[in-house]
Design the sequence.
C-alpha cells in the first residue's frame, strides 16, 4: 500500500493546471474526457460481447438510512393491488413514486461535470455560478443523453493482493493499477471506462456498515492522477468514491474528485456494486467488457442515478 | 387506418387465456417474455453495432405540468455554485434532488410486470395483493437489474404512411406492422424489443400539447395482440402508451397494456422519444439496432424511469 | 372600484423608503410588524372569544394540479389499513407522507420576511444573499415559532359592495377599506391581523378555475400601502395574493408583496379561505375575533403552510 | 416509579371494550374525545390568557437523520437570494419546498384517529380498510380543520420527582399523575388537552441521542388508561410517544396509542417540545393555559405536523 501523501498538497494543486484538459475539445465542450470515446471505440467495445452475458454494476437504490446514507431514497406507493383499491379504477394497476438525492456515498450514480468546482470554476473554465437553483447551464448530466458506451475495464485490487477487501484509508497507487493490468493481461487505453474495485461491499457484508467520512474508505491516492491522465480514460468508476478517505490533504478533501472532474473532465461513477462483475471476470478470465451507462435525461442536472451494465 | 373495434370486448377478453404465457417459464418466473432473449440473441444484437453510433430513446424528465403530466418531476438543488455557498464547504460542489412518479404519459419509463392486474391477478397468476405499500413481492422492476439487451426494431408508422404523424385515436393494425416490415426489409423475431412510432412528439411540436386521456392518442389496436404474441417479442416500446386511446372497449380501457403485461408477461416502455432514432434509421436505411435498457434497481418497484439506447 | 394606477411606478417605488420600518425594532430584528403585537394586545384578543366558536381560514392542501397550482402537493401513503399490511406489524397502523412547495397561489401559507427582496435586500436591510440553498440566515419563518396571536379583523369587500365576488383585476382602494370599517363598526388598529376578502373562492365555485397570473386576480391596489402603514397592522391576509393582478406596473409586479414584506416587515398570509369566516361574521354581526396562526417550525424556511384560526 | 406490568396483557386487552367510546357520539362521528370540548370550554380556556404570553410546544422540523429519525424532513430551496437568481425574475424572491413523513419519533405531530387499528378496526368501528393509498375515508385529520382549542394542562413528572428527566423505560403511573395535580393545585377535567412531560429533550441535551425503539423511552404505563378515560380528556400530548417503551407486552407494543386512539377516540400529540412551557409554568406557578393546535388541512390524512401553542 502506498501512502497517499507521497505528494505534497502543493504538488496536488499543480495538477489542476498540469493535468488540465480545458479547451482541448473546444470552448463550448460539455463532454470532457468522453470525447476520447470514438465511434470506432464503441464498435470495438461491442465486439467484446461474446457470451451475451450482462452484469449490473449498480447497488439497489438505498432506501434505508445508515452512516453513509443521511438522505435515504423515499420509495412510496401511489396505488397498490389491495382489492379495495383495484376495484375503484377502470384499469386495475399499481404505481409507485420515489425521491432521490443521487450524490453521496449510498447510491450508484454518475457525476456530471458541474458537480465539483475549484476556485470558482468547473471543467473547461465555466464559472460555478452557472449552477443555480434552476440547475446547471453548463456541464449538466443531460449532455450525456446518448449514454456512455465503450470498453469497460475492471481493476480488482483485492484480487491482485489476494485479500477480501482493502481497509478504510488504504490508498491505491499507480503501481497497484499496473499490477492489475499485468495480472489480467490487458492495458488501460484511450477511451476506456475504468472501474476500480476496493472490496467495499465485501467488507460491508463481512463487518457491517461504517461511517466513511469519519472512519475512512479505500480508494485511489492522488498519485494516480497523472496515470489516469496519461491513459486518457473516458470515465472512472469505483465501488466507493474513487478517492481514498481521508485524503491526507487539509484543503483538498477529495483530490481524485476535484482533479478528474474539474481539470480532466472525467465523469465519475460513484458507489458501483462491483462484486458480481468481479466474479464474472474471474470466471471468464477477462477483465474487459462492453460497458453501457444510460443516465436519465435530467435537464440541467448535476448527476443521475444509473445502473451501469457490463456485457460479456 | 383500421378501426380498433374489429374485435368485440368479449373477443379481447378471451386473449387473457388464449395469449397467456403463465407458467411457460416456471411458476416462480419474474421475467416473462424477456425469457425470449437468449445469450445468443444478446451476442447477435451486439453485432448490429457497426457505426458505433448511439441514440437516446428517452424524453427529458418532465418537470413541467401539462395535460398529460399531472404530477411533474420535482427537480431541486441541494447545493448550487453561488459563491456564498461554495466557500462554505471543503470541496466546493453542487448537488440536486428529484422526485418522480414514473408512470403516466409524461416520462419515458419501463413498466414492471406488477404494474397491471386482471381480475385480481398479475402475470403468472401472482395475486394483486402481492403489491402493498411495501412494494411488489412479485413482478417487481428489480428482477431486471441486469437490464434488457437485445435487438431493437423500429416500426415507424408515419414513415410508411408518408405522413408526419398519426392523429389521436388512430389505431394501428397488424397489416400496418407488416407493411413496415416489408418497407424496412426486416422481420420481427423472437426476443426482439419492438418500438412502434406514431409520431406523437412530431405532433406535439407541430400542434402543441393535448390531453390524451380526453382527446385520444394513436397506438396499437387490440387486433395486434395475437400478432405480438405470435412474434414472441420480448418487450414493447412506443412513443405513446402502446395502446390506442380510447380503446373503444368500456371495461378494458387499455387492452394492449392489460393483455401484454398480464397475460403475455411483456414489459412495456411507455413514452419513448422515437424521433431521433427514426431519423437515424432512415439515414442508415436499417430499422434494427442493438437496444440496451438499464432500469434503476428499485427494489420491489413497479417501474423505473429509463433512457433506452439504440446503438447502430 | 379604484384603478390601481392612481399612482405612478415612481410613486410606488418611493414607498420603499417613505413607508420603511427598517431599524425601527433594532438592527437584528426578525419579526417586523409583528412587534406591534404586545402582550396586552394578545390578552385583549383573547377576550374576543365569547361563543367559543372557531373557524378555519385555510384551504385544503392543494393536491390537484390546476392553472394556479403547477406544483401540486404530493400526498402518499407509507402504510395503509389493507389487511395484508396491518397483519405484518406489531402495531397495525397507517401513515402518510407529503411534499409541498408552500408558496404560490394554491396553498394557504405564511410568507416569511425573507421571501421577497428589493434591490438585493430584504426587510431590515439584510442582504438577499443571506438566503442560500441552506435556507435563510435572516427573516426566516422559525422566528415566528411562538405563533401569531392577536385580534383578527375581516374586511369583506363583496359584502359591502353587495356582490358575490370581485372580478380578476379589480383593485381595492383605501376608500373600500374604510367603507368596510364603517359598515362593520370597527376600526383597524395597531397590531391587528387584517384579512381582506375578495370572494375569490366564491368565484371559483361559481365560474371554475382560471389562471390568475394570466387573467388577473382581485386584490389591494398599491394606493392602500400608506393606509396599511398608517394603521400599523401586524400581518395581512387575503383569499388571494393580497396584490391585485396585474398590478399595472411593469417593474413592480407585486407592489403589495414587495412594499409590505420588504419595507414594512409585514408577514403575509396568502390564499386564505375566508368564506366560512365571512359567514360567521355576518351571522354574529362582528368582524373582529381572536386570530391564531401557528406556523410549522421550519428552521431557515421562507414560508410555512398554515391553518389560521378565527375564534369567536 | 410503577412497573408497567402491573397489568397482564389480557387486562390491557380488555380496555378495548371497557374503555370504549365507540358510538358515544354517533355512528358517523369523526372527532372522538374532542367532543368533550364544548364551546363553553373553549371560551373558558380563553380566559386563561392573562399575560398574553405564548409558548411553542413544537420541535423544529427534524431535517437531520438520527436513531429516532429514519426519514428526515427534506427541506430544499426552489429559489435563493443569490444575485444571479434574483436578477432573472420580475419579483426577486426566495422559496422553499419540504417533504415530511409526520409520524415517528422525530417530529411534533397530531395523530388522526385513523392512525392506529385494533383487530381490523379503527375508532368507532370503522374498518381499517377505509385507509387506502387514496387516504382515509374515516378518522382523517381534516375532520379537525377548525383546530383544537381548549384548556391545556401540563403534568411535569421530572419536576414533581425533583429530577432532570425520566430514564428510558420508566413508566408513569396514575399516582404520578395525581401527585402532579396535587403539586400544581389543579385537577385534570373533561375536555382538557393533557400534556405529560418526561424530560426527554433535557436528556437528549444532556446525554445525546439514543434509539428509543431499541433502548426505551419514558412514558405512560398502561395502568394510566382507566385514569385518562375517567378524566375525559380531549387529547393527549407528550414529549415522547405518550407510551412507555418497551411496554412489556408482547402483542400490544404501544398500549397507550392503541387504547386511547382506537377505543377512546383520543387524538395524540407526539414528540412535543415541552421544556419551554415547563419553564413558563414554573415561573408563573400555574400549569394550565389556553391551548391551540391548528393542523394543516390534509384531506384524508393520517396526521399533521403541528406547532401546538400554550398561551398564558
Sequence:
Amino acid at each position: 500500500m502506498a501512502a497517499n501523501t507521497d505528494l505534497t498538497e502543493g504538488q496536488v494543486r499543480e495538477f489542476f493546471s498540469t493535468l488540465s484538459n480545458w479547451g482541448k475539445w473546444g470552448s463550448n465542450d460539455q463532454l470532457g474526457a468522453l470525447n476520447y470515446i470514438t465511434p470506432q471505440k464503441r464498435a470495438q467495445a461491442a465486439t467484446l460481447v461474446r457470451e451475451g452475458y450482462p452484469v449490473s454494476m449498480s447497488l439497489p437504490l438505498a432506501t434505508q438510512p445508515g452512516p453513509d446514507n443521511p438522505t435515504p431514497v423515499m420509495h412510496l406507493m401511489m396505488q397498490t393491488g389491495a382489492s379495495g383499491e383495484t376495484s375503484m379504477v377502470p384499469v386495475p394497476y399499481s404505481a409507485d413514486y420515489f425521491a432521490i438525492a443521487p450524490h453521496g456515498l449510498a447510491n450508484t450514480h454518475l457525476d456530471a461535470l458541474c458537480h465539483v468546482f475549484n476556485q470558482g470554476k468547473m471543467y473547461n473554465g465555466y464559472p460555478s455560478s452557472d449552477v443555480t437553483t434552476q440547475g446547471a447551464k453548463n456541464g449538466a448530466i443531460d449532455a450525456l443523453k446518448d449514454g456512455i458506451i465503450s470498453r469497460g475495464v475492471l481493476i480488482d485490487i483485492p484480487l491482485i493482493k489476494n485479500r477480501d477487501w482493502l481497509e478504510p484509508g488504504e490508498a491505491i497507487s499507480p503501481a497497484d493499477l499496473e499490477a492489475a493490468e499485468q495480472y489480467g493481461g490487458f492495458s488501460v487505453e484511450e477511451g476506456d471506462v475504468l472501474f476500480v474495485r476496493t472490496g467495499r461491499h465485501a467488507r460491508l457484508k463481512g463487518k457491517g456498515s461504517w461511517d466513511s467520512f469519519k472512519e475512512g474508505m479505500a480508494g485511489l491516492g492522488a498519485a494516480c492522477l497523472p496515470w489516469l491522465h496519461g491513459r486518457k480514460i473516458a470515465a472512472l468508476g469505483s465501488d466507493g468514491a474513487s478517492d481514498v478517505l481521508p485524503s491526507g490533504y487539509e484543503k483538498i478533501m477529495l483530490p481524485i474528485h476535484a482533479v478528474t472532474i474539474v481539470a480532466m473532465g472525467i465523469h465519475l461513477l460513484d458507489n458501483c456494486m462491483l462484486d458480481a462483475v468481479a466474479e464474472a471476470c474471474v470466471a471468464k478470465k477477462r477483465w474487459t467488457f462492453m460497458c453501457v451507462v444510460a443516465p436519465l435525461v435530467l435537464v440541467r442536472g448535476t448527476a443521475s442515478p444509473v445502473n451501469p451494465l457490463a456485457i460479456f
